[in-house]
Amino acid sequence: MARRSSQYICQACGAVSPKWAGRCEACGTWNSLVEESGGGPLAAPGLKPGKGRVVELQPLAGTAEDAPRTPSGMGELDRVTGGGFVRGSAILIGGDPGIGKSTLLIQAAAAVASTGGKVVYVSGEEAIGQIRLRAERLALGDAAVSLAAETRIEDILATVSSGPPPDVLIIDSIQTMWTDAVDSTPGTVTQIRATAQSLIRFAKKSGTTVILVGHVTKDGQIAGPRVVEHMVDAVLYFEGDGAHRFRILRSVKNRFGATDEIGVFEMSGRGLIEVPNPSALFLGDRDAASPGAAVFAGMEGTRPLLVEMQALVAPSPLGTPRRAVVGWDSNRLSMVLAVLDAHCGLKLSGHDIYLNVAGGMRIIEPAADLAAAAALVSSLAQNPLPSDAVFFGEVSLSGAVRAVAHASARLREAQKLGFARAVAPAGNTAEAGDAPPIPIEPVDSLAGLVARIASDARVRRDE
Ligand code: TYD
Ligand code: MG
Predict the structure, then answer these.
(1) Strand, helix or coil at 309?
(2) Maximum distance among all Cα pairs of the chain, rounded to whole angstroms
(3) Is position 291 within any domain?
(4) Could you identify the atom of ligand 1 that is nearest to the CA of residue 96?
(5) pLDDT tens-digit series, residues 94-148
(6) Distance between CA 428 and CA 414 in Å, rounded?
(7) Beta-carbon contacts of residue 82 (< 8 Å; ≥ 6 apart)
(8) Ligand 1 site, residue 99, Cβ cutoff 6 A
(9) CATH number for the domain that contains residue 141
(10) Full residue range of the structural domain in which residue 358 is found
């Protein structure tokens, strides 16, 4: 008799272990091993184990067609997916609970349906009545979207396979789905993997785009969807925080388009509104006259985005001064401070330093170094930066300011929003050409930037 095998699976990283342990050996997370029954039903049904079939190998050279897509009808969503949902692909949309994933998807479902597409929305979390209520609030009550409140994957697949396959199938959320084929509770790695696999198989076979919703908690508790990331064609993250109304949809993996692309939405009382010009939103209520604020001309994927970086530098009463960063990497702040200290002679070790990216935006680009440095120096000198200037450039440990990519796109965006000059790496002047949209005031070292801000202050005082 075959012994019923069970194994312990780390709910954080998916590592399998034959025995229980308090700490996962693979990723080091404590208390993440959960007993799940093993077994091989993950292989395609109907295939005898061990017997392989000869597959016909194809040459690399050959014609490839553009993947056919179903546009969602929402510009910001289409920008992130690379032009619409690719038929037969699987997309994972992750995000914290309550961020607005269901709202986004019901709006996208209604938009696809309004262009004649067939959309099935399966919710494992809400009853039909709740979904209808939300749709009414969004004024989408009469959209031709088919709904189901169901969690058993066999029933869902039987339903969508019974007629012509839908163009888009939305599963909200993958954590609530379960299959008979494996014997573990919904939400465990084994269940998520098995249900996602059957849905992805259905997508490939039928040409339906399958969209999976996955909750990711901040502390990574229910990290099940991480396991799915490897299996799907595209992974989008929906981010934002409770204190701000706007939400950012970010593509972190896309087999059919660019990653790092973002779509910006604003959560309103009537659902998500697309924000086609996010720079205007982020700079909305800027107080240009106060010291410590620098406008950074950034890039998110192929999209230029202007955001304000705010710094506060104040003498500290504490033995160990405070360093607090919101929206930027604290390691990069330490690095910029070290360079200001070593190469520009600014002694900041006795100062509390706070750095904030306005509007709740999160910046990962090294090109923000120069703007951060400008904000810090401006706050220290109690001297506002020129209100018509944007900043970008990467600072190296030697204190040099290095050229960054996409200078012309950054300059064009700055011009569009009424800025008149850019303080930028000298190395970027060539790329910007003879007639840049706005003139570059080149800096080649951080010391040069500090001198410029100091002399600006002198000019202003003398006036
Ligand atoms: P929801 O889409 O249910 O989040 P998720 O599926 O990611 O868990 O959105 C929940 C939040 O959005 C909820 O706190 C209320 C807010 N919301 C609005 O502010 N306006 C709206 O029109 C809707 C539908 C929701
Ligand atoms: Mg939801």
Answers:
(1) strand
(2) 94
(3) yes
(4) 7
(5) 988 889 999 999 999 999 999 999 999 999 999 999 999 999 999 998 899 999 9
(6) 15
(7) 251, 254, 256, 257, 258, 261
(8) yes
(9) 3.40.50.300
(10) 280-458
Q: Count CA within 13 A, CB hemisphere, residue 290.
A: 10
Flag whether 243 is in a domain.
yes
How far is it, in rounded angstroms, from Cα 130 to Cα 102?
Answer: 11
The SS3 assignment for 212 reads strand
Whether 137 is in the pocket of ligand 1, judged by its Cβ within 6 Å, is: yes
Cα-to-centroid distance, 99 and ligand 1 (Å):
6
Separation of alpha carbons 199 and 122, rounded Å: 12
How many angstroms is it from 121 CA to the middle of ligand 2? 12
Question: Do residues 225 and 304 share a domain?
Answer: no
At 375, list the tokens: 């904000």
Residue 222: both structure tokens together: 């229910």
Is 0.85 surpassed by the pTM of this model? no
Residue 441: exposure state from Cβ atoms within 10 A (0-12, 13-18, ≥19): middle
With a 6 A CB cut-off, is 92 part of the ligand 1 pocket?
A: no
Helix/strand/coil (H/E/C) assignment for every residue in 128-146:
HHHHHHHHHHCCCCCCCEE
The reply to whether 52 falls in a domain is no
Most confident of 64-73, 129-138, 427-436: 129-138
Residue type at 301 in one-letter notation: G
Q: What is the pLDDT of residues 274-311, one digit of tens each?
A: 988 888 877 877 777 789 999 999 998 778 899 999 99
CA distance to 121, 123, 154, 185, per residue, from 118 (Å): 10, 17, 20, 31
Q: In what order do the strands lie in the sheet with 16-17?
A: 16-17, 6-10, 33-37
Distance from residue 103's CA to the centre of ligand 1 (Å)? 6
Please tell me whether residues 216 and 88 are part of one structural domain.
yes
In ligand 1, which atom is closest to the CA atom of 137?
Answer: 22
Tell how far the Cα of 125 is from the centroid of ligand 1, in angstroms: 13
Regarding the beta carbon of 141 and ligand 1, being less than 6 Å apart is answered no
Structure tokens at 456: 């600006």
Atom of ligand 1 nearest to the CA of 271: 22
- Which residue type occupies 240? G
